[in-house]
Specification:
Blueprint: E1 5-8, E2 13-16, E3 24-29, H1 40-58, E4 62-67, E5 75-77, E6 81-84, H2 85-93, H3 97-114, H4 130-143, E7 146-149, E8 152-155, H5 157-163, H6 174-180, E9 196-201, E10 217-219, H7 221-233, E11 237-243, H8 247-262, E12 267-273, E13 276-278, E14 281-282, H9 293-298, H10 310-318, E15 326-328, H11 330-352, H12 365-379, H13 384-402, H14 410-427, H15 441-462, H16 466-478, E16 481-486, E17 489-494
Parallel strand pairs: 3-4, 3-11, 11-12, 13-15
Antiparallel strand pairs: 1-2, 5-6, 7-8, 8-9, 9-10, 13-14, 16-17
This protein binds zinc ion (ZN).
Length: 495
């Protein structure tokens, strides 16, 4: 198996990846809090950890990839104070919180499917693990690292910090944490502002509530990932991923909870993807540059000059290293669109190339070097931009062969074919949208076909052949297409 190196946020070092159990990898990634449309901020971790998941499998590991859905406990301010994000949405839209969760989980899945992000092995929900969270809180209380206060349970950061180091991941000291902690009303139950909730008492108006030994309430946001990680991957597992913004406090708290409840930090490699900016600015609703994925795919956001296909977005994300910030702009996306299309065109051209009569020749040195370069880059902390640069060298070779400036042996063609199938498509997850019927091709074909069908039906009606006209209508109905006769002809809709 090839050596894989990953930058471990815990040590700030690029480290050789050695799994706990040879041949097997357990990976946990913090998933979305499902209270709104999938947006750019979801796309980057979605694609980044998808490539890691695919690469690990391609290298021969058996991978269990857990990506959670946060459907309770993520509060508006500092994750720990204010209204639950999902409960708030439910209140504003007069829905049951789980209706909000269902809707936006489906939207998230749909966006991920379009981006060709594979489903994780397990996708657990926080609300499905209340019992496990209560058990973990009991353990932390037993060990003395939490306290009950007015129906809530808080983690005692100061006590923990005396025995262990709170801040091992982020490198923050307790003093620095104190400065960064906003003081809000309602913190009166905590002993110190940096203490965080393991269990929050539900006020009478709070609709998402469960019984517990400390009264009706709901779990704190940080706890779910500790508990679900342990449940599905064991007390210690290999990789934990997420956005850089989750490193503190979310992941720092996770480590403290793990250490306090089960005596181990729990995670061997912490991997964090950097953030996305838009025209150099942080993405935010107040800045008017908050772009959802459907807006990006349809081009309907005012700052976009055109729609960008899911594969253009995926390619764009992979053109930057996951640890660098990624700046979205129309110009950059247009560049990615061109680059992506060039690679797909070469993949198509490659299939129609025939080998020159050099049957016994081994793969040329140049092509071998390109393939090695691609693998070396991917295994060097997932360096997708360098891998893509090597793939463009392969594109250049395909183009030269197409223009008959060079000839390729059968072994060359096979090696290049494998590179495109197994790495470009298999690991980087870039599929040919034109071939897959994307870019509205299928829709256009359906429109054309329906025009023909309605034309035939119009003829039948003109000849007063009602039987034929009805037969066409009934047949279409079976295919899920409804016809409505209007004054000037007929229109159709998909049921
Ligand atoms: Zn998490």
């Amino acid at each position: 198996m090839r050596n894989l190196f990953l930058t471990n946020t815990m040590t700030r070092q690029k480290e050789l990846f050695v799994p706990i159990h040879p041949g097997h990898v357990g990976m946990y990634v913090c998933g979305p809090t499902v209270y709104g449309e999938a947006h750019l901020g979801h796309a980057r971790p979605g694609v980044t950890y998808d490539v890691l998941f695919r690469l690990l499998k391609h290298l021969g590991y058996k991978v269990r990839y857990v990506r959670n859905i946060t459907d309770v406990g993520h509060l508006e301010h500092d994750a720990d104070e204010g209204e639950d994000k999902i409960a708030k949405k439910a209140r504003l839209e007069e829905l049951e919180p789980m209706e909000v969760v269902q809707t936006y989980t489906e939207r998230y899945h749909e966006a991920m499917r379009k981006l060709n992000v594979e489903s994780p092995s397990i996708e657990p929900r926080a609300s499905g693990h209340i019992i496990e969270q209560i058990e973990a809180i009991k353990k932390i209380l037993d060990k003395g690292y939490a306290y009950v206060s007015n129906g809530s349970v808080y983690f005692d950061v100061e006590k923990y910090n005396r025995d262990f180091n709170y801040g091992v991941l982020s490198g923050r000291t307790l003093e620095a944490t104190l400065e960064g902690t906003r003081s809000l009303d309602g913190q009166g139950d905590k002993k110190a502002p940096y203490d965080f909730a393991l269990w929050k008492k539900a006020e009478p108006e709070h609709i998402m509530r469960w019984p517990s030994p400390w009264g009706d309430g709901f779990p704190g946001w940080h706890l779910e990932c500790s508990v679900m990680g342990e449940k599905y991957l064991g007390q210690e597992f290999d990789i934990h991923g997420g956005g850089m913004d989750l490193m503190f406090p979310h992941h720092e708290c996770e480590i403290a909870q793990n250490q306090a409840s089960r005596g181990t930090q729990g995670v061997h490699y912490w991997v964090h993807n950097n953030m996305i900016t838009i025209n150099g600015q942080k993405m935010g609703k107040s800045l008017g540059n908050f772009i959802t994925l459907p807006e990006l795919f349809s081009g309907s956001h005012p700052i976009l000059t055109q729609p960008y296909s899911p594969m253009t977005i995926r390619f764009f994300i992979l053109q930057a290293h996951y640890r660098s910030t990624l700046d979205f702009s129309n110009e950059a996306l247009q560049g990615s669109e061109k680059g992506y299309k060039r690679i797909m065109l070469a993949a198509r051209d490659l299939r129609s190339l025939s080998a020159a009569a050099k049957a016994d020749e081994p793969v040329s040195e140049e092509i071998s070097a390109i393939i090695e370069g691609v693998y070396d880059a991917l295994c060097d902390d997932l360096n997708t931009p360098i891998a893509i640069a090597h793939i463009f060298e392969a594109v250049r070779i395909v183009n030269s062969a197409k223009e008959k400036r060079i000839s390729l042996s059968p072994a060359d063609l096979e090696a290049l074919g494998k590179l495109f199938d197994e790495v470009v498509c298999g690991v980087l997850g870039l599929i040919d949208e034109e071939e897959a019927g994307g870019s509205g091709k299928a829709e256009k074909a359906l429109e054309g076909a329906m025009e023909l069908v309605l034309e035939e039906r119009k003829k039948a009606r003109a000849e007063k052949n009602w039987a034929e006209s009805d037969r066409i209508r009934d047949l279409l109905k079976e295919y899920g297409i409804s016809i409505k006769d209007t004054k000037d002809g007929a229109s159709w809709t998909l049921d």
